Amino acid sequence: MFKKLGTLLLITSLILLAACKNSEESSTSSEDTNSATDTNASESQDISVNGPEKVGDVYEIDGGTAKVMAISNKETTAKTGPMQLTVKQVIAAVANEQTPFIEVQLETKNTSDKVVYFGPDNAKLATSTGVQINEPSSDESDDFLGEYVGKVNDSGSIFYIFDNEEDIKDLDSIRLRTSAPSDEDANALGDDLDLKINLEH
């Protein structure tokens, strides 16, 4: 009888021990899950929900994220002939920790009733770090109207892709140069635009 009782007690002890072990594993697993959730939440909080506003901001782009290296939030407007060009924002950033680029957000406006040809999406860009890019990336940039039939507006972004992050590091300013607008007979209706935009970095 004692032998049976001893065996019964041994089995009961083993069952209790196994139950405690499973409970500990479940608790550990729960803690790991909570920790992972907290980490993911923390990473999500690092993404700027309002888009890029200041140096160091990380924001979402197509295919990943980008980190701001330099920025200008100050609007710059210039007029040549009947065309008005406004630079809304300039962002120098690194996409997915490997591709440096500059995004220039533009607005264009034909202030006349005439048909005017104007191509801000062909603008040359030069940086204070000594790099010049003769045209924006056609793959990344928005298409502008080109032909403005009367008093119409347009807006979009043009992107310049760089080879090295050093090209946009400590960026003080950029120069944006675009050709003068023209009429239907290819006559110039103003002067070339040459804008300098200062950036914070």
Sum up the structure in keywords.
201 residues; alpha+beta; four-stranded antiparallel beta sheet; 12 strands; disordered N terminus
Short description, anyone?
With 201 residues, this protein is α+β, with helices and mostly antiparallel strands. It is built from one helix and twelve strands, in the order H-E-E-E-E-E-E-E-E-E-E-E-E.
What can you see in these coordinates?
Strand 7 (124-127) and strand 8 (132-133) form a beta hairpin. By secondary structure, this protein is α+β, with helices and mostly antiparallel strands. The chain contains 1 helix and 12 strands, in the order αββββββββββββ. Mean pLDDT is 84; it is low at 1-20, 23-31 and 33-45. It starts with a helix and ends with a strand. 22% of the residues lie in helices and 38% in strands. The radius of gyration is 30 Å and the shape is elongated. Strands 1, 2, 3, 4, 5 and 10 form a 6-stranded antiparallel beta sheet that branches. A 4-stranded antiparallel beta sheet has the order 8-7-11-12, with no helix packed on it. Keywords: Signal. Residues 25-40 have a biased composition (Low complexity).
Q: What are the segments in which pLDDT stays under 50 over at least 5 consecutive residues?
A: 1-20, 23-31, 33-45
Separation, N- and C-terminal Cα atoms: 85 Å
Number of helices: 1
Radius of gyration: 30 Å
Taking all residues together, what is the mean pLDDT? 84
Number of DSSP E strands: 12
Structural shape: elongated
Main sheet record: 6 strands, antiparallel
The share of residues in extended strands comes to: 35-45%
- Helical content, roughly? 10-25%
Structural class: alpha+beta
Give me the strand/helix succession.
HEEEEEEEEEEEE
Keywords: Signal
Signal peptide: 1-18
Protein name: Lipoprotein
Region (Disordered): 25-55
